[in-house]
Amino acid sequence: MLADRANDRTPYNKQQALLAATLCGQVKFLLEIAMPYGPVLCVQCDKSEHDCTCEKYCTICKSLDNVHLCTDGLYYCPDCREACDVALAESRER
Description:
The protein is mostly helical. 30% of the residues lie in helices and 4% in strands.
């Protein structure tokens, strides 16, 4: 296959590759990859924030203050949540 590509003299660039991959359904964009429906669960115990008995600390800075479960299943403090642009789990459940 590489030998065929070496003999091919057609111009090739990243935009063409992205277009071809998109048309073939090989590339998924962030908006197309939706989070699964249903409640957000803790990645450690697979329980909702209310039922989770794990030690709750910020995934980034290890703070224990005002830490809440976010849409990725991890816990964040307000500062790290804002810096990482992660939404609270409860915002997706509504």
